[in-house]
Automatic annotation (TrEMBL):
<keyword id="KW-0732">Signal</keyword>
<dbReference type="Pfam" id="PF03928">
    <property type="entry name" value="HbpS-like"/>
</dbReference>
<dbReference type="InterPro" id="IPR052517">
    <property type="entry name" value="GlcG_carb_metab_protein"/>
</dbReference>
<dbReference type="InterPro" id="IPR005624">
    <property type="entry name" value="PduO/GlcC-like"/>
</dbReference>
<feature type="region of interest" description="Disordered">
    <location>
        <begin position="24"/>
        <end position="45"/>
    </location>
</feature>
<feature type="signal peptide">
    <location>
        <begin position="1"/>
        <end position="18"/>
    </location>
</feature>
<dbReference type="InterPro" id="IPR038084">
    <property type="entry name" value="PduO/GlcC-like_sf"/>
</dbReference>
<protein>
    <recommendedName>
        <fullName>Haem-degrading</fullName>
    </recommendedName>
</protein>
């Protein structure tokens, strides 16, 4: 039986994830209706990157996209909810067809060989509007001018084995394992819907369910430029695809695919033209030949088929035009020379000209003898951006494109000391890079155990229980008290349902679920337990039952400044390192937007180069890095990892093993 929002189980039904369907791994090359990629715009003199063209969706185009999706839903007899967003997550409209299910159930997929309920958050009911919005945001946020990812792509890269299939048990977890718990409704970075007026379109906006991986979410492109996303909720199920080897007939995906006709990504950048560790990613199991004749008249369906609906916290029930990414109104724009010296840098803005996160000194003098200075913060961000700009991208087309990502820097209290982006970095990397920076600073902090032990048990989620689990697992009574420096790769090792990652056995990581057979992408352990109640509160708000969740995630005790150290949740895939002054922790740097090894390198090497440039700051001393921790398990020993840098990563230099010995 499906569970209702009123119970704690429906909690994070919201948590986004999922997909049903596999495919032949790129062998069905999309007919997605995409157009050839436009010729790359050359960068301006003195620059390495070109700015994305200022494209946006008009009201008429939103209506056309909706009409096309509605027509396909009618042809398939599947009344659905359709959501369209712009690139920075503004909801441009939500259409509820007559007869569409009001609620969508988190996947009933069999987990751990049993159908017994409850398992994690499986089976919870969430509003269908929130499912559709999460899918649309996911398509928009994961995509860029160099890659187009769908919610089916997301399903492939977040599960416990990559690629997910019955025959791949024993392989490592997905490269973006845990990314589903980003863009959270409690995030202090992602903006909230204001209902209109000044600043209404400032992004990036939050998602009601984090990132989704249920098929039926695609990015929307206009003249080769990503301008938004579409999401469909119609079959009442919001799950995840455990078998990438077959090809699904998925009605929600077909409806979304109809919606993006005329607005599909260039074929050359679709996910199934991109490989990760030798595996082709997936974009869609449906093709244009599967679709019915397109319905393009919104007037013909608006009313007879249903209508536009308001969604509390996301939309006022009126179709809006999108905002052009890169403009002041979008909340992300090119930096000024005073904000950041690199001409290619982009920053987050408040819509009135002021940067939201200007470079500044550390705020943690109450905890650190010598906090980061503004000059040191600037050096770290500039040097990391310089490494990023020279690096070969992993997930972008054409081949040998430059890496594009976001870099975030925090102090030991988790306060932001600066955020900088490359022009076309995927939007999801903004929130994720901050999660990564905060996670590295948190788990390397002397107060990490104290913070977790001081977190109240809410709705049955006992965060404090993870401290003794870690200490027993590592055979270290002082674990999580600052004796070791943890990068996100290190904490990610401890967060996998199988330890070591990929070896199927009886032992889960101590930050994962206690029984690896009951792992679900909807409940992964500490990462989800920290924010599950926030999501439940937010779902109640969407339904008008209670006030919204706080504008910062988790219920860990406040730091000395009165704010949470992990105010947008934690992240558990690589791309961050803590910042040290000698043996003293002074902050954390996080990078997100491209391959995880590239993200690791930019954080690690950027920090090293900043220390060489300005002195006084560095990576953690080698003797206290988490890769010095050896875990005795099953008669053998396993060493944790710290960072993993790509081989020969630079476009302008044949150097190899660039992180070796640092």
């Amino acid at each position: 039986m499906a569970r209702k929002i009123g119970t704690y189980w429906c909690l994070a039904g919201a948590l986004a994830l999922a997909a049903c369907g596999g495919g032949d791994s790129g062998q069905n090359a999309p007919p997605t209706g995409g157009t050839p990629a436009p010729s790359p715009t050359p960068p301006a003199q003195g620059r390495l990157f070109a700015d994305p063209a200022a494209e946006f969706l008009s009201v008429g185009e939103v209506q056309q996209i909706m009409a096309q999706a509605i027509g396909e839903a009618q042809a398939r007899g599947l009344p659905s909810t359709i959501a369209v967003t712009d690139r920075v997550g503004n909801v441009l409209g939500v259409f509820a067809m007559t007869g569409a299910p009001a609620v969508t159930t988190l996947s009933s997929e069999t987990i751990g060989g049993t159908t017994t309920m409850p398992i994690g958050l499986q089976g919870a009911d969430v509003p269908s509007t929130t499912a559709a919005i999460a899918k649309a945001i996911t398509g928009a946020y994961l995509s860029s001018g160099g890659n187009a990812f769908s919610t089916r792509t997301a399903s492939q890269i977040v599960q416990e084995h990559f690629p997910p299939a019955p025959t791949t048990v024993g392989l490592e977890s997905g490269p973006l394992f845990g990314v589903q718990f980003s863009q959270l409704p409690c995030s202090d970075l992602n903006a909230r819907f204001t209902g209109g007026g000044a600043g209404a379109f400032i992004g990036p906006k939050r998602s009601p369910l984090g990132l989704a991986a249920d098929p039926g979410g695609f990015p929307i492109y206009k003249n080769g430029v990503v301008v938004g996303g579409i999401g469909i909720a119609g079959d009442g199920d919001y799950g995840f695809d455990t078998n990438i080897l077959d090809r699904d007939v998925d009605d929600e995906e077909a409806i979304a695919l109809a919606g993006i006709q005329g607005f599909a990504p260039p074929v050359e950048i679709a996910a199934d033209r991109i490989t990760v560790d030798g595996t082709s990613l997936r974009f869609t199991d449906m093709t244009v030949s599967d679709l019915s004749p397109l319905q393009t008249s919104f007037g013909a369906v608006n009313g007879p088929a249903g209508g536009i609906v308001a969604v509390t916290g996301y939309s006022n029930g009126v179709i809006q035009q999108g905002v052009a990414y890169g403009t002041e109104a979008s909340g992300i724009r090119p930096s000024t020379a005073a904000e950041f010296t690199n001409q290619d840098a982009y920053v987050l803005t408040n819509g009135a000209g002021a940067g939201r996160f200007p470079i500044r000194a550390g705020t943690d003098a109450a905890s650190v003898a010598q906090p980061l200075s503004a000059a040191e913060s600037r050096a770290i961000l500039e040097e990391a951006f310089a490494v990023l700009s020279r690096s070969r991208a992993q997930i972008r087309r054409p081949l040998d494109s430059r890496m594009q990502a976001t870099v975030s820097l925090v102090d030991t209290h988790g306060q932001v000391l600066g955020i900088v982006r490359s022009p076309d970095g995927p939007i999801f990397g903004t929130d994720v890079s901050l999660q990564k920076a905060r996670t590295a600073a948190f788990f390397s902090n002397a107060v990490a155990a104290q913070q977790l032990l001081g977190t109240p048990v809410l709705a049955g989620f006992d965060v404090s229980a993870y401290v003794p689990r870690v200490r027993n697992f590592l055979n270290d009574a002082n674990a999580l008290t600052g004796t070791f420096a943890f990068a996100d790769r290190s904490g990610g090792n401890l967060s996998r349902p199988y330890f070591p990652d990929g070896e199927v056995g009886p032992t889960p990581g101590p930050l994962s679920v206690e029984n690896p057979n009951t792992f679900s992408p909807f409940a992964v352990g500490l990462q989800s337990d920290l924010i599950a109640v926030n999501i439940v509160q937010h779902l109640g708000f969407v339904q008008g039952a209670n006030p919204d969740t706080a504008n910062e995630c988790t219920f860990v005790p406040n730091g000395p400044g009165g704010r949470k150290r992990i105010a947008n949740g934690i992240q558990i895939f690589p791309g961050s390192v803590p910042v040290y002054r000698g043996n003293q922790l002074v902050g954390g740097i996080g990078v997100s937007g491209d391959g995880i090894d590239q993200d690791d390198m930019v954080s690690f090497l950027g920090l090293h180069n900043a220390g060489q440039r300005i002195g006084g700051i560095s990576n953690a001393p080698a003797a206290i890095r988490a890769d010095r921790i050896v875990v005795n398990i099953n008669g053998g020993s396993v060493r944790l990892r710290y960072v993993n840098c790509p081989f020969a990563p630079f476009l302008d230099d044949p150097a190899q093993n660039v992180c070796e010995g640092l």
